[in-house]
Amino acid sequence: MYNPLNVRLRLNRLFIVFSILAIILITVSCDDRHQHADNISSADTIYLNGNILTMAIPETAEALAITDGRIIAVGNVETINFYRNANTTVIDLKGKTLLPGFIDAHSHFTTVLKINNWANISAPPVGIIENFIDLLAALLKHKEQHAIKKGEWIIAYGYDPTALEELYDITINELDPVFPDNPVMIMHVSNHGAVLNSLALEAFNINKQTPTPYGGIISRIKGTNEPSGLVMEAAFLPIYRIKSKLDEQALGSLFRAQMEYAKYGYTTIVDSSTLENEFELLQKAALNKQLFLDVISLPLFTDIKNILDKNSVEPAQYSDRLKLGGMKLIMDGSPQSKGAWFTQPYLTGNADPDNLDNTNSAWRSEPIMPYSKFKQYYQYSVEQGLPVYTSANGDAAIDTVIQVNYELKINHEQNHRHVVVNSQFMRSSHFDQFKKLGLIPSFFSNNAFFWGDAQVNNLGKERAFTSNPMQSALEQELRFTNHTNFSVTPLNPLFMVWTAVNRLSRGGTIIGTDERISPVQALKAITINAAYQFFEESEKGSLEAGKIADLVILDKNPLTVAAGEIDTIQVVETIKAGKTIYPQTPVDQLAPEQSE
Q: Which InterPro entries match (predicted)?
């Protein structure tokens, strides 16, 4: 029989039981939290009071704790305080922005070691060269400052004819009268060629009898077969391998070279197109504990076999901060030099700038090497378990990378993560192919600023405005990275974020409004996506518990400043595995000449 009093008594008993259980659970929970705090290592360092951008979910945090070079917790201040003790260093960010250390998706680290002894002939805003007179004056000044004697080489970098007043290439006619006693090599800004004077041409046996090799350019004086000075692509490769070699003395500049990257917030860097002797020097530096940044070497296809045959190296594994991460292969040249290989022709004739009246409307450029050779190199790298980093700019070159992957029966499930470096002129049909094959595009958004105007001229707006199609890649759920290709463009990653967000050319044109991306996506391209490219996403690229404490502190928040001001953001501090490497100079990491 229903009795309201009995029901009320039962409910009271149940309430008491549940209350007791709740108290027990809360007590246990608190004990567990305190026990957890007791069992873990207390934080060496805690960061708070700033904008913490995690590049993960959740996208922001209030505080972050580090112990022994790794992140142990990310979250709100209350949670992070469980890791704090009397010995913890607490860093007040004072409104600055903390995010993962930048990961260099593609550059040429050893170039920093070389250009110290080369003349800088870059055009504004990188340098001050605006015409041939400026260029020759810079070479003469370099010769004087470095006391270069008769017969010794004069080498310069940053040469960009598209940015000079003359708008065509300098030749032996201008170089020889000024430098009759010195071989001169002016490196093209693309790193795919150079202008040589007569003594330099003679040194490499390039003359009127020299045939132009497949996939190469030897520019000739109009109406003759005499070389005019410009040598590009396949014709330049043998010159590059000889004149770009490092010597033992270069290791003395290794500290400064790494600091050049560290001051821009990089904690992992790349040396693409590493030559055999350069890899051996990097190995020696690693063995001598001279590397304080993680260095990923991508040996050039011409040298990879010798490197693997002669050196005891475990691919894809770091040894004293050096890792052999893949092989660099080259399919075509740059679009601004008309070396990019397209399915449709250029609008402005062929790539020989000395034939100024040439209006060959069929010029589409050509590959650096025959397909059979390309496939041979690609297959070798795959068989060695190495990702292939293929430089491919034009859509025809990208077609070829796709073709070789299909022929080698590669697919995304195999998780090879082969990279198409630049990928500048992907067609819409390429996105699905990349996803099926597991290919990663590493875009080059800086190209829009430096050569967007030249591309509009050479290719027309329709093609130029769809270059580096980052937004389209996002919409197709294709993960991509972005890179500077240093020394082709400056190292500054915030400038690279700016170019990806704004796509503004040097002349003030927006190179494709529809392909602009948000600041957070631009940052992911150089943090978590770049970590993924190198199979390091479980260790780097985002601020999550368990990952290496590779961090960068910026003076402003890239997500809240005006889009046009992102390139003004400054790096305040760079932290590698929990230790400040910039601006602080650790004594035990000094190069020999600095510690003496």
A: Amidohydro_3, Metal-dep_hydrolase_composite, Metal_Hydrolase, YtcJ-like
